[in-house]
């Protein structure tokens, strides 16, 4: 404990291990003594890097407690020779420490002059969403339903700004959301990144599925999997490209 104020402003959980006379932490690191005299060469007050991270985390959680779940969302679509807009319906799902929103359709952009078709190449669209009381935002998921004649979407950056606390979160997607392009999916998640705080890790999993050998065990249906963890779920992930080399997945005895 660095000081008495650290007890009042610090963690909600303290471990008590008996009684002893309180001494400031700087009594051992060459800081100012209790009588006001200066210490040695180490008299400067040094703030550990870990404490800066704790302070930033505390600030973001304080903002989360004031948030009413109303956000402005700005999404950019990349432009280039291959990039184009999408005909699909686009959704955003926001995950927080106290829950998650439902998939929210981004269908009515904020426009003051005219009605435009959102998510076109080189375009930036703004939306207003309400996530509900989900606490501090941990991650977001962008997805689309692969509908229309040109469903593939090359998304750029997503920026969320809290309407009440002014907290701003930036998510650099810069990828294709597609079920027809190699190594792409129609949905993607990114963790929230805050200064001084460690973001959630991005994990990759190998899913092994065995199909029984009983009569008519095969299927040609679209099979999806959802993984659940401490910070929410992955949403439905389509199992369509087996890495085992099988041309047709989910066949009898496979």
TrEMBL record:
Pfam families: PLAT. Residues 69-191, 203-254 form the PLAT domain. Residues 28-85 are annotated as: Disordered. It comes from the Eukaryota. Residues 62-80 have a biased composition (Polar residues). InterPro entries: Inner_ear_hair_cell_LOXHD, PLAT/LH2_dom, PLAT/LH2_dom_sf. Gene3D superfamilies: Catalase core domain, PLAT/LH2 domain. PANTHER family: OXYGEN-REGULATED PROTEIN 1, PROTEIN CBG12474. This is PLAT domain-containing protein. It comes from Macrostomum lignano.
């Amino acid at each position: 404990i660095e000081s008495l104020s650290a007890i009042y402003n610090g963690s909600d959980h303290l471990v008590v291990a008996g009684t002893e006379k309180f001494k400031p932490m700087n009594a051992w690191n060459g800081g100012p003594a209790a009588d006001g005299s200066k210490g040695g060469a180490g008299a400067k007050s040094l703030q550990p890097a870990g404490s800066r991270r704790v302070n930033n985390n505390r600030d973001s959680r304080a903002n989360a407690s004031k948030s009413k779940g109303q956000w402005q969302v700005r999404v950019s679509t990349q432009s280039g020779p291959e990039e184009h807009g999408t005909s699909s319906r686009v959704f955003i799902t926001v995950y927080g420490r106290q829950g998650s929103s439902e998939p929210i359709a981004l269908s009515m952009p904020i426009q003051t002059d005219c009605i435009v078709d959102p998510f076109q190449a080189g375009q930036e669209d703004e939306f207003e969403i309400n996530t509900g009381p989900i606490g501090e935002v941990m991650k977001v998921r962008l997805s689309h339903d692969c509908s229309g004649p040109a469903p593939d979407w090359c998304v750029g950056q997503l920026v969320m700004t809290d309407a009440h606390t002014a907290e701003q979160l930036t998510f650099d997607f810069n990828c294709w959301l597609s079920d027809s392009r190699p190594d792409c999916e129609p949905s993607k998640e990114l963790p929230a990144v805050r200064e001084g705080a460690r973001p959630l890790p991005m994990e990759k999993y190998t899913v092994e599925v065995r199909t029984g050998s009983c009569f008519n065990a095969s299927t040609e249906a679209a099979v999806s999997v959802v993984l659940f963890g401490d910070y929410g779920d992955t949403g439905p992930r389509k199992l369509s490209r087996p890495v085992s080399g099988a041309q047709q997945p989910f066949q009898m005895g496979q």
